[in-house]
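Could someone model PRP with this protein?
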Amino acid sequence: MTVEMRELLLSRIRDVADYPKPGVLFKDITPLLADPAAFTVLTDALAELCVTHGATKVVGLEARGFILAAPVAVRAGVGFIPVRKAGKLPGATLSQAYELEYGTAEIEIHAEDIGADDRVMVIDDVLATGGTAEASLELIRRAGAEVAGVAILMELGFLGGRTRLEPSLRGAPLEALITL
Ligand SMILES: O=P(O)(O)OC[C@H]1O[C@H](OP(=O)(O)OP(=O)(O)O)[C@H](O)[C@@H]1O
Ligand SMILES: Nc1ncnc2[nH]cnc12
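Reply:
Sure, complex below.
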């Protein structure tokens, strides 16, 4: 991705102070999604990372991760697997509780969706504390699949997510298109 492409993406991310809680600077990607040139640059860049790292499936994290991971899966020619907040998937699930920058949550995956033959890339918009990404890696491994990596639009470096995630990555790449 060129410097100009990075600048285009960054220019379409809106800062919202004190949302959803006082003290949080929320990174809002809706302006980027509304700009077809920027959304295409983002989709292509994340899809290229999937191909480079040999992913056979992408996991999208509800809800913003879905918006990015679905077009990335189509672009990269791999399957899309939803990781949903607890209670939304009808089949047999694996669950993982976690903490994120502004709360706690529980995510689930359909156990039968991925298996030993899969290399799975996790796609999301923001890496903050790393709690969400860490929980998703746990789910992927518990389902018996290999982690191809984590690919994120934006890493909030000052929150230390990369350091927290390091042990769970076990050498797999953490790719951030933008680091703040
Ligand atoms: O690194 P962390 O501290 O775990 O935070 C990052 C996560 O927080 C946001 O999702 P959120 O749970 O707010 O859900 P949403 O996608 O439904 O808005 C974001 O899309 C990431 O998934
Ligand atoms: N500051 C932030 N902005 C947007 N999404 C987030 N998820 C966790 N922290 C966030």
